[in-house]
């Protein structure tokens, strides 16, 4: 069986690095992007079982990135990551069809469970 | 007889305008403190001295043994000012239980009372005044601006006395003057309260702005630290004891930091209520089972099973209970008991009380307990109880605290049984 593929999009380099180490050790195929623009370029080339996307990013925020990548891959499953519980963008993301919201600091056990179900 | 004009002129001399200037300056020094409706109102000593001169003058002019200003201090009436006249049996500061006093009648009816001779009316047979030889009485109620009783101004005589109209008018004029002073004190207290509220609001605005930025950035950083710790725990199969302990410390400190940030965000940007049917007792049992209680603390509870389920936000209630329990365990650092009790206090309210036998809270801290950024704990920023109060009030409830230094304290949370969507 192929490894499940995950894309982590976050402008916080340490967040993407640590997530990558954990998920790879758990047997997933992990790709990272440092912002929305880079994420879109990657998605053009490859599809993922699940995408973890930070909501607040410079230039293109997570929701805008999500809207654009839906045009490329309509079926993309995206989990939004945010550090802030009362964010208007959270609501917008859910309306746009995001699979779910995860609050930072992330609970990696939950992250693993969600990927397992995807 | 001395003409009334003389006294009216005197009243002007001890007049309000001058007093206003002087008193505002002197507030804060040499004050007598009174509590009314839970509000602290200060009366400067020099104002009390002016009232003392008033009763001295009244006694001298009317030629009676006693002219008094009495102050309500439930369940007592206290002699607040007593004329320096000869044969005056009323000592300053003397307190008498409400037991059929002349002044008590004035306060109950909120009207003037004239008793020319109490011996001729059986109603006054057991009056403490008669025992002191005071058989005639004329008194007027004194009110705070919003109608609450301060006490009375009165004269008493050892012989029958109907007090002529001019004397009554004199006392009435002084009543007006004293009430003007009370109004002044009230307004000063009101202004101070408003100033405090304004400062508190300013604190909050700054807090809100800080929270949005700092909270976000810190959570992001914490996310990386938490991931790194998770990764190390995953990789290191049999770490050395020091490494294992250090990882546990990291985990614990991340959790503490998360809690601080959460309380900061909760307070500055409260979430909307997410209500469902909640069994308070069940919720308390869950909170009690999940919270870590040090071994030297004995936790006991008495949960009233008759409590109906209420409509509430379970997450917010959980945090309310956790915050209060965590406060209690802090107060119990030398050990003791924490007793949690639920009760239906009346058909519409449920009361949850948390009583500890800890160090107690100094009186000076009690007034600030629920204010944001107020704390006496070294590792906290002072939002736990502020958030707790906000959450309780969002549910349409109230929270109060009673404490005696060295003897512990009790937090009482009252929640409406038919909670509807809150504010």
Strand order of the largest sheet of chain A: 2-1-3-4-5
Query: How many strands appear in the DSSP assignment of chain B?
Result: 15
Mean pLDDT of chain A: 91
- Helix segment tally of chain A: 5
What share of residues are in beta strands of chain A? 15-25%
Q: Which H/E pattern describes the elements of chain A?
A: EHEHEHEHEH
The name of the CATH topology of chain A is Rossmann fold
What Rg of chain A do the Cα atoms give?
A: 13 Å
Biggest sheet of chain B, in brief?
6 strands, antiparallel
Poorly predicted ranges of chain A: none
Roughly what percent helix of chain A?
A: 40-55%
Average pLDDT, all residues of chain B = 83
Q: What is the count of helical runs of chain B?
A: 11
Order of helices and strands of chain B: HHEEHEEEHEHEEHHEHEEHEEHHEE
Cα shape of chain A: globular
CATH superfamily of chain A: Response regulator
Q: Examine the secondary-structure arrangement and name the CATH architecture of chain A.
A: 3-Layer(aba) Sandwich
| Measured distance between first and last alpha carbons of chain A | 14 Å
> Class of the largest domain in chain B in CATH?
Alpha Beta
Greatest chain-chain interface?
A-B, 19 and 23 residues
How does the SSE layout of this entry go?
The complex is a heterodimer of chains A (118) and B (423).
Chain A: E1 5-9, H1 13-25, E2 29-33, H2 36-45, E3 50-54, H3 62-72, E4 78-82, H4 88-95, E5 100-103, H5 108-117
Parallel strand pairs in A: 1-2, 1-3, 3-4, 4-5
Helix pairs in contact in A: 2-3
Chain B: H1 4-13, H2 16-26, E1 31-36, E2 39-44, H3 45-62, E3 66-73, E4 76-82, E5 95-97, H4 102-109, E6 113-115, H5 128-131, E7 136-143, E8 149-157, H6 165-235, H7 241-268, E9 276-278, H8 280-290, E10 297-303, E11 310-312, H9 314-331, E12 336-346, E13 349-356, H10 363-366, H11 384-394, E14 398-404, E15 408-416
Parallel strand pairs in B: 10-12
Antiparallel strand pairs in B: 1-2, 3-4, 3-8, 4-5, 6-7, 7-8, 9-11, 12-13, 13-15, 14-15
Helix pairs in contact in B: 1-6, 2-6, 3-6, 6-7, 8-9, 9-11
């Amino acid at each position: 069986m192929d490894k499940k593929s995950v894309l982590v999009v976050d402008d916080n380099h340490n967040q993407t690095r640590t997530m990558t180490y954990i998920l790879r050790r758990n047997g997933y195929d992990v790709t990272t992007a440092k912002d929305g623009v880079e994420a879109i370029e990657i998605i053009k080339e490859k599809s993922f079982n699940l995408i973890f996307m930070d909501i607040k990013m410079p230039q293109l925020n997570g929701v805008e990135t999500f809207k654009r990548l839906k045009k490329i891959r309509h079926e993309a499953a995206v989990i939004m990551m945010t550090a802030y519980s009362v964010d208007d963008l959270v609501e917008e993301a859910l309306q746009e069809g995001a699979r779910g919201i995860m609050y930072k600091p992330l609970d990696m056990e939950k992250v693993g469970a969600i990927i397992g179900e995807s | 007889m001395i003409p009334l004009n003389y006294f009216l002129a005197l009243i002007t001399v001890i007049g309000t305008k001058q007093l206003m200037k002087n008193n505002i300056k002197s507030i804060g020094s040499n004050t007598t403190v009174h509590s009314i409706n839970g509000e602290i109102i200060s009366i400067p000593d020099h104002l009390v001295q002016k009232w003392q001169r008033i009763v001295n003058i009244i006694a001298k002019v009317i030629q009676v043994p006693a002219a008094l200003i009495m102050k309500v201090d439930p369940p007592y009436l206290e002699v607040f000012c007593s004329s320096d006249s000869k044969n005056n049996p009323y000592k300053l500061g003397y307190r008498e239980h409400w037991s059929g006093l002349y002044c008590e009648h004035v306060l109950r009816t909120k009207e003037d009372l004239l008793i020319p001779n109490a011996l001729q009316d059986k109603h006054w047979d057991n009056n403490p005044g008669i025992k002191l030889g005071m058989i005639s009485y004329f008194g007027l109620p004194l009110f705070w601006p919003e109608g609450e009783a301060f006490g009375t101004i009165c004269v008493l005589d050892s012989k029958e006395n109907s007090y002529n109209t001019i004397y009554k008018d004199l006392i009435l004029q002084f009543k007006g003057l004293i009430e003007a002073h009370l109004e002044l004190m009230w307004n000063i207290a009101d202004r101070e309260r408003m100033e405090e509220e304004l400062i508190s609001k300013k604190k909050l605005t700054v807090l809100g702005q800080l929270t949005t930025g700092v909270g976000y950035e810190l959570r992001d950083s914490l996310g990386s630290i938490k991931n790194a710790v998770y990764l190390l725990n995953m990789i290191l199969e049999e770490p050395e004891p020091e490494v294992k302990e250090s990882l546990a410390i990291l985990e614990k400190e991340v959790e503490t930091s998360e809690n601080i940030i959460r309380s900061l965000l909760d307070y500055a940007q409260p979430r909307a209520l997410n209500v469902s049917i909640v069994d308070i007792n069940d919720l308390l049992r869950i909170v009690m089972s999940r919270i870590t209680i040090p071994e030297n603390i004995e936790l006991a509870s008495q949960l009233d099973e008759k409590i109906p389920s209420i409509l509430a936000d379970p997450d917010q209630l959980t945090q309310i209970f956790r915050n209060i329990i965590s406060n209690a365990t802090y107060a119990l650092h030398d050990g003791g008991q924490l007793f949690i009790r639920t009760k239906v206090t009346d058909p519409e309210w449920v009361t949850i009380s948390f009583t500890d036998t800890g160090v107690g809270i100094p009186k000076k801290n009690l007034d600030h307990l629920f204010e944001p950024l107020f704390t006496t704990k070294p590792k906290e920023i002072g939002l736990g109880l502020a958030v707790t109060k906000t959450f309780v009030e969002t549910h349409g409830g109230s929270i109060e605290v009673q404490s005696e230094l060295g003897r512990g304290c009790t937090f009482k949370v009252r929640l409406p049984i038919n909670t509807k969507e809150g504010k």
